[in-house]
Amino acid sequence: MSLLLRDVTAGDLPLIERWLHADHVRRAWGDPDADLRLLSVPPPEGHWRAVIEADGAAVGLVLWQHPTREELDVAGLSDIPASVIDIDIMIGERDALGRGHGAAAIRLVTEAALADPAVPFVIACARLDNLASRRAFANAGFREDREFDDVPHGRYVLLVCHRCRRGGRTRSSTSGPREYRRQAPLLNDRQLDVDVLTALSKITQCHE
Ligand SMILES: CC(C)(COP(=O)(O)OP(=O)(O)OC[C@H]1O[C@@H](n2cnc3c(N)ncnc32)[C@H](O)[C@@H]1OP(=O)(O)O)[C@@H](O)C(=O)NCCC(=O)NCCS
To answer: How remote is the CA of residue 136 from the centroid of ligand 1, in Å?
Structure first.
């Protein structure tokens, strides 16, 4: 199994629209039309997005961004610096759920984000009842930090992943060995302003 992240193109929008309307995505992401409007324009500065491809097929979308001070404060996360990276993810293809693609994509983005020394740690927010999301982030090495109110959306769990504290679970898959390919657009220093490949090897060493 090969998993990679690639740039989103205008040609992906019909697929993304279908994913946004799928019940399991809609439950977590909310209004598909509003989301599609946001995804139809290039990401603003400090925001990135990529299509998740498994064995050459597009299966989902991952977004990562620096949250604003205001967004964090409104959620009562005043102690979290705006220099963190916040991840949002969907596996839009129903058939591709539960195969470890979510956790694998989260790992790739987290590694790339933490390769930037200015990023202290990576966060994500999952609704309390979104057990699949909580498990996928746990499998990618995130720990549950606290519950908080994201008014008016409800109760959420703050998930965090620090450098050198990542472990998570290596999935024992029945579908054979998994290969996670790191693709240029995500790991290109155009986007993260660091030599990510060098930093990634340091992270791996630090891990082992
Ligand atoms: C969250 C999401 C990205 C996970 O992707 P995925 O590829 O299915 O995730 P993985 O296969 O890596 O892991 C899923 C884990 O959740 C578990 N899981 C799935 N459904 C579950 C449920 N209803 N209750 C408890 N655990 C569940 C799986 O067993 C697996 O855990 P395990 O490997 O420890 O057994 C995907 O479910 C999704 O896109 N959901 C809709 C959008 C969403 O919720 N986004 C996240 C917003 S924070």
So the answer is: 5
Q: Provide the residue ranges of all domains of the chain, joining segments of one domain with +.
A: 2-207
Residue nearest to atom 21 of ligand 1 (CA): 132
- Cα-to-centroid distance, 95 and ligand 1 (Å): 12
The pocket around ligand 1, CB under 6 angstroms, is made up of 24-25, 28, 89-91, 97-103, 124, 126, 130-133, 135-136, 139, 171
What does pTM read for this prediction?
0.85
Main-chain dihedrals φ then ψ at residue 121, nearest 5 degrees = -165, 170
Q: Which two tokens stand for residue 116?
A: 């930037």
**Considering the domain 2-207, what is its CATH architecture?**
3-Layer(aba) Sandwich (3.40)
Measured in Å, residue 205 CA sits from the centre of ligand 1 at: 28
Spell out the residues 6+ positions from residue 52 whose beta carbon is closer than 8 angstroms to its own: 3, 4, 5, 58, 59, 60, 61, 62, 89, 91, 101, 105
What is the full per-residue pLDDT of the chain (208 aa) written as tens digits? 899 999 999 999 999 999 999 999 999 999 999 999 999 999 999 999 999 999 999 999 999 999 999 999 999 999 999 999 999 999 999 999 999 999 999 999 999 999 999 999 999 999 999 999 999 999 999 999 999 998 788 999 999 999 975 555 544 433 333 334 444 344 333 333 333 433 333 333 333 2
Q: Whose CA is nearest to atom 4 of ligand 1?
A: 102
For residues 101 and 123, the answer to whether their CB atoms sit within 8 Å is: no
